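Subject: two folds for Thursday's group meeting

Dear M.,

Sorry for the delay on this. The cluster queue was jammed most of the week, so I only got both jobs back this morning. I'm pasting them in the order they finished. Each block is the input sequence followed by the predicted structure tokens. Could you check whether the formatting survives your parser before we put anything on slides? The first protein is the one we discussed after the seminar.
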Amino acid sequence: MKTRTARLALVGLVAAFATVAAACAPDAPPPWEPPAPVNWSFKGTNITVNQSQDEVRDPIFGTCISLTGCTDEPYLLQVAFKVRIGQPGSADAWVVTGSTMPSLAPGDSLALSGGQQAKVDFTGVQPLDILSALNPANKMDVVGVYTWAVDEDAINSLTGGAGSVATIFKNALNATLAAGTLPNQDANALVGMIFDALFDNIGTPFNLILSNIPCLGLCDDVLGGAVYVGIGATGALAGIMDAALASATVPAIDIPLVDVPPNIQGGGFFTMGGTKNFTQAFTGAGGQHTYGFQSGPA
């Protein structure tokens, strides 16, 4: 059920890809070479604090009574992943933690720079075009991020949990996509494979349990999560996928019983065809932060 929305949204892409591929395929397939590898990135670009996560005020005098102050100190945490479909052992996952931003009150906005962007670099991504995708010897790369919107407090309780999620992602992708095959002319099935691999395997290792121990409001708070998936497509194939993915949505995924890892509140899809911008509101832990994100050449 988790991936049904995304799958149904891509039905048009399946037919379009099959039609174009069939029209372009010659009688005897030569060893079509894939395009040159590219370096790609995903980063935060801006933030608006819509509602302060830390703010607690005296109901009579309006005085701030929060132990951590009444402004937010946001930062981004990204669990990045990369896998080459059909290449055993190719999966990798890692954590990028952004720099803490200056204190922001409700209504404040900030253009992110430097470490605040929590920039993820995907090096050596192998994109495929229509003809190279038809050659079974060529393997398609899939990249992405599981983005957490965080408000900093006194205790960083999230590093261990994020590292555990990265390990889960790496093992799950190696057991599924890296050991599998690219669905023939079926991007619908590809998206389903990705989400099933990532979120049907979330467990509760020790570090995740530690990340959910109450600490009297002094631990860093996660407002929510989002998932952005990049398909290794370029050229005409990227154009076909981008057109079909324009109306596709990432399904909301509730991860029960725990705050870490956070529920999936949105996200999006991109290809290696060009720069793409996203906007996502994260609502939780008593606050709301809206971020801008960008995928594009590194």
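Second protein, same layout:
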Amino acid sequence: MATAVHFNANAIQVNRRMAMQYSDLQKKGEDLEKIVADSALTNGLVIQDLENRIRNLEAQVIAKERIILEKSEANNILWEKIKALEVKEEKLTSQVTKMEIDKEKQTKKKRPNKKRKRARAQHTQNGMIGEIKMGPIDDNRKDDLEKYYAEQSRDVTFYDIPAYWSDEEIFNLLNTTVGQIEYMRTKRCHKYKTVKTTLRLTKKYEEIYNRGG
């Protein structure tokens, strides 16, 4: 009887130990399942985050590629405009150069040569006499005459004036530089003209005249 009781006690202890071990194993299994579940959740979140990052990067790459393409197209348009402006500038430069050359040619054509001078001089025949007389002087000019010109008129003769100069050109030249002309008479002799004048010299030329210049 005592042996049976002792056996039952040992069996109970073994069962308790096994129950405790099973409980520990069950708890460890639950913990392991929890760890695995947490790990799976974490991995899922990490994977989802990585996928989101990849999508964002792809979107950024697409956006940057689009910007680069737009800038490239804009650069091409600008280069085309620059080339068009350069071509236009070259055309304008060539036109301006051509105009300058044409103008220079026309200027050379307009320059009087000896033949033109001779032809011009032939309009006035040898021995022909021309006269220019000035009318009465306005009252408005009397003050200027007294201020800038000599008091009395003088008879002055000019020699060796080119025959191709017209009487009007000679008159204007003398009247604006030498003195106020009252009367002028020209006579041609071959290549030259002799010009006799009655004029009031400027005060500057009056001083030169008085010094015998």
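Two things I noticed about the second structure. The chain has two domains: 1-111, 118-210. The helical segments are 2-110, 114-121, 139-148, 167-177, 203-210.

Cheers,
T.
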